[in-house]
Design a protein that fits this description.
Layout (H helix, E strand, L loop, with lengths): L3 H38 L10 E10 L4 E10 L4 H16 L14 E10 L2 H8 L16 E10 L1 H5 L5 H18 L3 E8 L17 E2 L4 H7 L5
Parallel strand pairs: 4-5
Antiparallel strand pairs: 1-2, 3-4, 5-6
Protein backbone atom coordinates (compact mmCIF):
# COMPACT_ATOMS: atom_id res chain seq x y z
CA UNK A 1 0.00 0.00 0.00
CA UNK A 2 1.43 3.33 -1.06
CA UNK A 3 1.42 5.79 1.84
CA UNK A 4 -1.02 8.70 1.45
CA UNK A 5 1.70 11.35 1.58
CA UNK A 6 3.49 9.71 -1.34
CA UNK A 7 0.27 9.74 -3.35
CA UNK A 8 -0.16 13.43 -2.62
CA UNK A 9 3.43 14.17 -3.69
CA UNK A 10 2.98 12.08 -6.86
CA UNK A 11 -0.18 13.90 -7.94
CA UNK A 12 1.31 17.29 -7.04
CA UNK A 13 4.36 16.55 -9.22
CA UNK A 14 2.16 15.28 -12.04
CA UNK A 15 0.03 18.44 -11.97
CA UNK A 16 3.18 20.57 -11.94
CA UNK A 17 4.55 18.74 -14.98
CA UNK A 18 1.27 19.15 -16.87
CA UNK A 19 1.13 22.84 -15.96
CA UNK A 20 4.71 23.47 -17.09
CA UNK A 21 4.07 21.64 -20.35
CA UNK A 22 0.99 23.76 -21.04
CA UNK A 23 2.95 26.94 -20.24
CA UNK A 24 5.83 25.96 -22.57
CA UNK A 25 3.38 25.14 -25.36
CA UNK A 26 1.79 28.56 -24.91
CA UNK A 27 5.19 30.30 -25.02
CA UNK A 28 6.11 28.39 -28.16
CA UNK A 29 2.82 29.35 -29.80
CA UNK A 30 3.36 33.03 -28.96
CA UNK A 31 6.91 32.92 -30.37
CA UNK A 32 5.67 31.30 -33.58
CA UNK A 33 2.95 33.94 -33.93
CA UNK A 34 5.52 36.73 -33.52
CA UNK A 35 7.80 35.15 -36.14
CA UNK A 36 4.87 34.85 -38.53
CA UNK A 37 4.13 38.53 -37.93
CA UNK A 38 7.70 39.39 -38.93
CA UNK A 39 7.29 37.36 -42.11
CA UNK A 40 3.99 39.10 -42.86
CA UNK A 41 5.55 42.53 -42.35
CA UNK A 42 8.76 41.84 -44.26
CA UNK A 43 7.22 41.99 -47.79
CA UNK A 44 6.21 45.59 -47.07
CA UNK A 45 9.90 46.44 -47.18
CA UNK A 46 10.23 45.33 -50.80
CA UNK A 47 10.81 48.60 -52.65
CA UNK A 48 11.71 47.66 -56.23
CA UNK A 49 15.38 46.93 -55.50
CA UNK A 50 15.90 50.22 -53.67
CA UNK A 51 19.39 50.51 -52.15
CA UNK A 52 19.82 49.82 -48.44
CA UNK A 53 20.32 52.84 -46.25
CA UNK A 54 20.67 53.45 -42.50
CA UNK A 55 17.39 54.04 -40.67
CA UNK A 56 17.16 55.57 -37.21
CA UNK A 57 14.28 54.00 -35.29
CA UNK A 58 12.91 55.54 -32.12
CA UNK A 59 11.78 52.31 -30.50
CA UNK A 60 9.32 52.40 -27.60
CA UNK A 61 10.32 50.63 -24.39
CA UNK A 62 7.42 49.64 -22.15
CA UNK A 63 9.80 48.92 -19.25
CA UNK A 64 11.50 52.33 -19.35
CA UNK A 65 8.48 54.27 -20.62
CA UNK A 66 10.56 56.10 -23.21
CA UNK A 67 11.93 55.89 -26.75
CA UNK A 68 15.28 54.27 -27.48
CA UNK A 69 17.24 55.20 -30.64
CA UNK A 70 18.28 52.14 -32.67
CA UNK A 71 19.95 52.07 -36.07
CA UNK A 72 19.01 49.52 -38.71
CA UNK A 73 19.53 49.17 -42.46
CA UNK A 74 16.64 48.81 -44.90
CA UNK A 75 15.92 49.32 -48.62
CA UNK A 76 14.65 52.88 -48.97
CA UNK A 77 13.24 54.37 -52.18
CA UNK A 78 14.01 57.97 -53.12
CA UNK A 79 10.37 59.07 -53.51
CA UNK A 80 9.49 60.73 -50.15
CA UNK A 81 6.09 59.12 -49.49
CA UNK A 82 7.34 55.63 -50.37
CA UNK A 83 10.44 56.28 -48.26
CA UNK A 84 8.31 57.31 -45.27
CA UNK A 85 6.21 54.13 -45.55
CA UNK A 86 9.34 51.95 -45.83
CA UNK A 87 10.79 53.61 -42.71
CA UNK A 88 7.63 52.82 -40.74
CA UNK A 89 7.58 49.27 -42.09
CA UNK A 90 11.11 48.85 -40.72
CA UNK A 91 9.94 50.20 -37.36
CA UNK A 92 7.07 47.74 -37.10
CA UNK A 93 9.23 44.79 -38.11
CA UNK A 94 11.25 45.72 -35.01
CA UNK A 95 8.10 45.56 -32.89
CA UNK A 96 7.20 42.11 -34.25
CA UNK A 97 10.43 40.46 -33.11
CA UNK A 98 10.28 38.13 -30.07
CA UNK A 99 12.67 40.35 -28.06
CA UNK A 100 10.73 43.57 -28.76
CA UNK A 101 10.61 45.99 -25.80
CA UNK A 102 7.17 47.11 -27.02
CA UNK A 103 5.50 43.92 -28.31
CA UNK A 104 2.79 44.45 -30.91
CA UNK A 105 0.93 41.88 -33.01
CA UNK A 106 1.96 43.43 -36.30
CA UNK A 107 1.03 42.39 -39.81
CA UNK A 108 0.50 45.51 -41.90
CA UNK A 109 0.45 48.46 -39.50
CA UNK A 110 0.48 51.32 -42.01
CA UNK A 111 -1.56 51.35 -45.21
CA UNK A 112 -0.20 54.56 -46.70
CA UNK A 113 1.65 57.76 -45.83
CA UNK A 114 0.82 61.10 -47.46
CA UNK A 115 3.09 64.15 -47.29
CA UNK A 116 1.32 67.50 -47.48
CA UNK A 117 3.13 70.87 -47.73
CA UNK A 118 2.76 73.06 -44.65
CA UNK A 119 2.70 76.79 -45.60
CA UNK A 120 5.33 78.89 -43.90
CA UNK A 121 4.12 81.76 -41.66
CA UNK A 122 3.54 85.06 -43.45
CA UNK A 123 6.41 86.70 -41.58
CA UNK A 124 8.85 84.01 -42.79
CA UNK A 125 7.71 84.31 -46.40
CA UNK A 126 7.91 88.10 -46.25
CA UNK A 127 11.43 88.00 -44.84
CA UNK A 128 12.50 85.59 -47.59
CA UNK A 129 11.15 88.03 -50.18
CA UNK A 130 12.73 91.08 -48.51
CA UNK A 131 9.32 92.64 -47.82
CA UNK A 132 8.28 94.05 -44.42
CA UNK A 133 5.86 91.73 -42.65
CA UNK A 134 3.36 94.56 -42.21
CA UNK A 135 3.17 95.36 -45.93
CA UNK A 136 -0.11 94.50 -47.67
CA UNK A 137 0.07 91.46 -49.87
CA UNK A 138 3.56 90.62 -48.65
CA UNK A 139 3.15 86.81 -48.74
CA UNK A 140 4.43 85.32 -52.00
CA UNK A 141 1.99 82.92 -53.60
CA UNK A 142 4.50 80.27 -54.59
CA UNK A 143 3.48 76.81 -53.34
CA UNK A 144 7.17 75.93 -52.99
CA UNK A 145 7.56 78.33 -50.08
CA UNK A 146 6.62 76.03 -47.25
CA UNK A 147 7.81 75.43 -43.72
CA UNK A 148 7.94 71.65 -44.07
CA UNK A 149 5.58 68.71 -44.46
CA UNK A 150 2.57 67.30 -42.66
CA UNK A 151 2.67 63.48 -42.75
CA UNK A 152 -0.75 61.85 -42.81
CA UNK A 153 -0.23 58.28 -41.58
CA UNK A 154 -3.08 55.98 -42.57
CA UNK A 155 -3.03 53.13 -40.03
CA UNK A 156 -4.40 49.69 -40.82
CA UNK A 157 -7.74 48.99 -39.11
CA UNK A 158 -6.77 45.45 -38.12
CA UNK A 159 -3.58 46.72 -36.46
CA UNK A 160 -5.57 49.32 -34.51
CA UNK A 161 -8.22 46.75 -33.49
CA UNK A 162 -5.55 44.52 -31.92
CA UNK A 163 -3.40 47.26 -30.37
CA UNK A 164 -3.00 46.95 -26.58
CA UNK A 165 -5.18 49.40 -24.66
CA UNK A 166 -3.65 51.80 -22.16
CA UNK A 167 -2.55 55.42 -21.96
CA UNK A 168 1.21 54.78 -21.92
CA UNK A 169 1.37 51.92 -24.43
CA UNK A 170 -0.77 53.83 -26.95
CA UNK A 171 1.14 57.09 -26.53
CA UNK A 172 4.45 55.28 -26.93
CA UNK A 173 3.34 53.80 -30.25
CA UNK A 174 2.27 57.18 -31.63
CA UNK A 175 5.35 59.01 -30.35
CA UNK A 176 7.56 56.29 -31.80
CA UNK A 177 5.98 56.76 -35.24
CA UNK A 178 6.19 60.56 -35.10
CA UNK A 179 9.77 60.67 -33.81
CA UNK A 180 11.02 58.01 -36.26
CA UNK A 181 9.57 59.89 -39.22
CA UNK A 182 11.11 63.19 -38.13
CA UNK A 183 14.50 61.65 -37.30
CA UNK A 184 14.80 60.26 -40.84
CA UNK A 185 12.86 62.92 -42.74
CA UNK A 186 13.44 66.22 -40.88
CA UNK A 187 11.12 68.04 -43.27
CA UNK A 188 8.21 66.26 -41.55
CA UNK A 189 7.18 68.71 -38.85
CA UNK A 190 3.68 67.45 -38.03
CA UNK A 191 1.97 64.07 -38.15
CA UNK A 192 -1.75 63.31 -38.33
CA UNK A 193 -3.31 59.84 -38.08
CA UNK A 194 -6.19 58.19 -39.92
CA UNK A 195 -7.45 54.60 -39.65
CA UNK A 196 -8.36 52.92 -42.93
CA UNK A 197 -8.66 56.38 -44.46
CA UNK A 198 -11.11 57.66 -41.83
CA UNK A 199 -10.78 59.89 -38.75
CA UNK A 200 -10.80 58.07 -35.41
CA UNK A 201 -10.93 59.52 -31.92
CA UNK A 202 -8.34 57.29 -30.22
CA UNK A 203 -5.85 54.55 -31.01
CA UNK A 204 -7.25 51.97 -28.57
CA UNK A 205 -9.40 54.03 -26.23
CA UNK A 206 -6.87 56.53 -24.88
CA UNK A 207 -4.26 58.16 -27.17
CA UNK A 208 -5.78 61.06 -29.13
CA UNK A 209 -5.87 60.65 -32.91
CA UNK A 210 -7.79 63.87 -33.58
CA UNK A 211 -4.79 66.19 -33.09
CA UNK A 212 -1.69 66.86 -35.15
CA UNK A 213 1.50 65.75 -33.41
CA UNK A 214 4.33 68.31 -33.56
CA UNK A 215 7.32 66.17 -34.55
CA UNK A 216 10.01 68.84 -34.19
CA UNK A 217 9.09 69.44 -30.53
CA UNK A 218 10.03 65.89 -29.45
CA UNK A 219 13.47 65.81 -27.77
CA UNK A 220 14.14 62.17 -28.71
CA UNK A 221 13.59 62.90 -32.40
CA UNK A 222 15.93 65.88 -32.19
CA UNK A 223 18.63 63.81 -30.46
CA UNK A 224 18.39 61.04 -33.03
CA UNK A 225 18.53 63.49 -35.92
CA UNK A 226 21.71 64.91 -34.37
CA UNK A 227 23.33 61.47 -34.35
CA UNK A 228 22.36 59.98 -31.00
CA UNK A 229 22.01 56.36 -32.16
CA UNK A 230 23.05 53.19 -30.40
Amino acid sequence: MIPRWQQIVFWALLLSIVGMAAYLIRLRSRAENRLLAVQDAAPVLATDDAPEAPVTLLVASDFEGTLLPVQRFAPLPEEPTARAKAILATLFVEYATPESPHPLAVGTAVNTVYLVPVPAPVSVLAAAAGVPASSPGNAPASAAQTAGRLAVVNLNGDFVAHHPSGIEVENLTLLSIVSTLHANLPQILRVHFLVDGQPKDTLAGHADLTQDYQAADMPMAQAAAAGGQR
